[in-house]
């Protein structure tokens, strides 16, 4: 179960980087008949056991993966809904309900995490960040479906500021002292989508009060990514997702 859902999550991540997320994803592809993994530690499992133990309550090393699975399922549900009837895009309320359900599910999963413990802190921060990013990206996709011939409607100062806030929030994670041992993970999750959206927004409407701030943030991010690509990080190599 863990391996299957992990591969599906990585497949979605690659699709995002390559700009393939506009393709409809049937639900059968997202499940393949595999049930969701249980919230268990590795030492809870034994090859000789006949029945699985009950799931643990609270944080485990797989909790982030469980949250990521829910996020991947939500991506698939939203993509399928958005392409269900190309001539009549679904209402924004339908998207809002699906995203709200995801927020509730993820918050339930992480509610017992202790933000003072670095690994649990990372789980809370990254899960909430990815959910917020999904909310932002899918909202823009919904706008694009409703106004396919007016893509410039997405290039508003409001959307630019929201994207910039998310983009900079990701950069602030690198400054968190408790998360310093996990700085290596930044190289695995560069924020290409947000960065390109910000640059596209500015190119379309360059005379913005926050344009200089946006360019500085992008330049800073590129420099950090270049540095993390060559730096040797010391710390626990804990698999986040």
TrEMBL record:
GO cellular component: nucleus
Highest taxon, organism lineage: Eukaryota
Keyword annotations from UniProtKB, A to Z: Nucleus
Keyword Membrane assigned: no
Subcellular location: Nucleus
Protein name, as recorded: Transcription factor domain-containing protein
Organism: Photinus pyralis
């Amino acid at each position: 179960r863990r391996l299957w859902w992990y591969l599906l999550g990585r497949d979605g991540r690659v699709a995002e980087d390559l700009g393939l997320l506009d393709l409809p994803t049937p639900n059968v592809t997202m499940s393949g008949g595999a049930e969701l993994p249980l919230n268990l530690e590795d030492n809870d499992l034994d090859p000789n056991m006949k029945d699985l133990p009950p799931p643990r309550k609270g944080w485990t090393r797989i909790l982030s993966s469980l949250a990521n699975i829910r996020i991947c399922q939500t991506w698939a549900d939203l993509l399928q809904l958005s392409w269900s009837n190309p001539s009549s895009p679904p209402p924004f309320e339908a998207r809002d309900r699906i995203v709200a359900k995801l927020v509730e599910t993820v918050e339930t999963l992480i509610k017992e995490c202790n933000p003072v413990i670095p690994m649990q802190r990372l789980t809370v921060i990254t899960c909430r960040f990815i959910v917020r990013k999904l909310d932002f990206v899918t909202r823009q996709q919904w706008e694009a479906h409703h106004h396919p011939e007016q893509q410039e409607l997405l290039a508003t100062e409001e959307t630019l500021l929201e994207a910039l806030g998310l983009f900079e929030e990701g950069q602030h994670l690198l400054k968190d002292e408790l998360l310093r041992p996990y700085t290596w993970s930044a190289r695995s999750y560069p924020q290409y989508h947000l960065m390109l959206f910000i640059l596209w927004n500015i190119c379309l409407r360059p005379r913005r009060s926050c344009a200089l701030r946006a360019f500085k943030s992008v330049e800073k991010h590129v420099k950090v990514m270049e540095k993390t690509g060559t730096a040797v990080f010391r710390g626990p190599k804990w698999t986040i997702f």
